[in-house]
Design a protein that fits this description.
eleven-stranded mixed beta sheet; Glucose Oxidase, domain 1; two-stranded antiparallel sheet; alpha/beta; about 260 residues; 2 domains; 9 helices
Length: about 260
């Protein structure tokens, strides 16, 4: 009997989600670690991008595969009711399909025919600890995909889709439906739903802070140790600079509107 459950509501608005797509996963990992979520809870080190250059932020819609076995396979709903297809219809823009595939790249979780629906639905991407078929075609769908590797194997002899929007384990990391996935060429990270709104804002600020540090070190010709890793004093200097920039820009805007 398949388990199919709804996805928790989005907690990131679209502006925040898009801003977070510009933040590297390294910054997200750092911010999570500073807030009680060490990388061993959030980072999937063995997943790699199947289409380099794409970046992803999306709410997780999960699918869990279990080992294939003839008697269990016949109990799985067929056709459009199968758990992975149910997930495709639940997901849309701002979402990412997350598939637990038992850390087995021989378990193909889909290819060109299946993933055409992700393109049609406007799904942001897919992550899995299984294999991906037909990347020669899928790469043109505009859907970001991260997995263990490409494969030519037929996955139905290895695993069976069992549940939709159940808690899953991908590359050893817990992912719950509604969590947020951030992925780029450097890796894949999960932001737990409970802290997603707070972590997103902090990661956006942290990314800007790191850019400020780079400029400052370059201008002052200093060792990275002067400001990095950033401590409370560095944050205070950055926020003071940010406030001064905002005040200067505000004064310039107001001045531009004055008529003589």
């Amino acid at each position: 009997m398949a388990i199919i459950q709804p996805t928790p509501d989005h907690v990131l608005d679209e502006a925040t989600r898009l801003a977070l797509t510009k933040v590297n996963t390294t910054a997200v990992v750092d911010v999570l670690a500073r807030n009680g979520y060490d990388a061993r809870y959030t980072y999937m080190p063995n997943l790699r991008t199947m289409n380099p250059g794409l970046r992803l932020v999306g709410r997780a819609v999960t699918v869990r595969f279990v080992p294939a076995r003839p008697d269990a396979d016949v109990e799985k709903p067929a056709g459009e009711e199968s758990p992975e297809y149910a997930a495709f219809e639940i997901a849309g823009p701002g979402d990412v399909i997350v598939m637990e595939a038992m850390r087995n790249k021989l378990l193909s979780i889909g290819g060109d025919i299946k993933f055409l629906r992700l393109k049609q639905r406007g799904v942001e991407g897919l992550i899995t600890d299984g294999g991906i078929r037909d990347m020669h075609t899928v790469k043109d769908y505009g859907v970001g995909i991260w997995g263990y590797d490409k494969t030519s194997n037929l996955g139905t002899r290895v695993g069976t889709p069992y549940s939709t929007n159940d808690s899953v384990t991908v590359d050893g990391i817990l992912i719950r439906p509604g969590d947020y996935i951030v992925a780029d060429d450097d890796g894949v990270v999960v932001i737990p739903l409970k802290v997603a709104a707070d972590i997103a804002q902090k990661a956006i600020e942290y990314d800007d802070l790191e850019e400020w540090i780079r400029r400052r070190l370059d201008e002052e010709n200093l060792s990275p140790g002067k400001y990095y890793p950033p401590d409370d004093e560095t944050f205070a200097l950055y926020r003071k600079w940010k406030a001064e920039q905002a005040a200067t820009n505000g004064a310039a805007t107001n001045g531009a509107g004055v008529k003589h």
